[in-house]
Amino acid sequence: MNGSINDSAAQQQRDEKFMRMAINEARQALKREEVPIGAVVVAGDRVVGRGHNLVETLQDATAHAEMQALTAASSTLGGKYLRDCTLYVTVEPCVMCAGAIAWSQAARVVWGADDPKRGYTTVEGLRLHPQTVVVRGVLAAECEALMKEFFKELR
Amino acid sequence: MNGSINDSAAQQQRDEKFMRMAINEARQALKREEVPIGAVVVAGDRVVGRGHNLVETLQDATAHAEMQALTAASSTLGGKYLRDCTLYVTVEPCVMCAGAIAWSQAARVVWGADDPKRGYTTVEGLRLHPQTVVVRGVLAAECEALMKEFFKELR
């Protein structure tokens, strides 16, 4: 379900503000020559977790931006459920991260660029927690530009 | 795909040996009043990673046995891919862990008890890496007995 249709202008502005923070995280990843994906978790107006992709740095296939941000948020808040939180991530989560988001029961997930290859929505039947509202396409062009920059340099 | 049909008696014995180690990990979880699930990662005949469910202890919804074991194995081996490794886990992996296993490109995944509620095979269209052989039902009764013991005590 896409919640963006009913989002107010204030909500949209807020989403863009936090997505810019996620983009800053993605830039940190790019500096480390990692696939540039960043994430922040927000409770109210407070950033309670952040992270960027560290798969190459840590040589750990599970070290995605979302995983870092969710774990950081749970640590900050002292609880495994993130029911009042919004996760912002620059690129559509993969299956692993979608599973983690589902366990966290996050209230909202907001992403920038779709991932038509590895995004969880490519798997038919895969859903987040029923309470979780999904908003896609926030600052998508900026999020995608970072990814294109990275993959262009690889060639 | 279930690879168990062609498994030799030696392979089966080997699988049971390592599943017993995963069961020991699950017992560690039970002692901490965690859902008793344990995992080990094996390369050749060497255990390179192990872990048990720590969701309550760490208050982190991502702290599943498989995640701990995969991250430990990558750390031991110094690489993000676990292409020569087998992951043993007492209960069928969830969506998150299936996603992590897919990224790791593990050669084999062996589990004990099925999880008809949260197991990744309940999601239509969700697959591990095409190279990964899946074996299910190894020491299933023992793995399930631990789960039943835990949930009986909760009631």
Structure description:
By secondary structure, the first copy, chain A, is α/β, with parallel strands linked by helices. Chain A has one domain (3-154): Cytidine Deaminase, domain 2 (3-Layer(aba) Sandwich), CATH 3.40.140. Helix content of chain A is 42%, strand content 19%. Chain A is built from five helices and five strands; from the N terminus they run αββααβαββα. Chain A has helices spanning 9-31, 55-58, 65-77, 95-104, 140-154; strands spanning 38-43, 46-52, 85-91, 108-113, 133-136. Chain A has a five-stranded mixed β-sheet with strand order 2-1-3-4-5. In chain A, helix 4 (95-104) links the parallel strand 3 and strand 4 (108-113). In chain A, helix 1 (9-31) runs parallel beside helix 5. The N and C termini of chain A lie far apart (36 Å). In chain A, 46% of the residues are buried. The mean pLDDT of chain A is 94. The A-B interface holds A 55-56, 58-62, 67, 70-71, 74-75, 78-81, 94-100, 102-104, 123-126 and B 55-56, 58-62, 67, 70-71, 74-75, 78-81, 94-100, 102-104, 123-126.
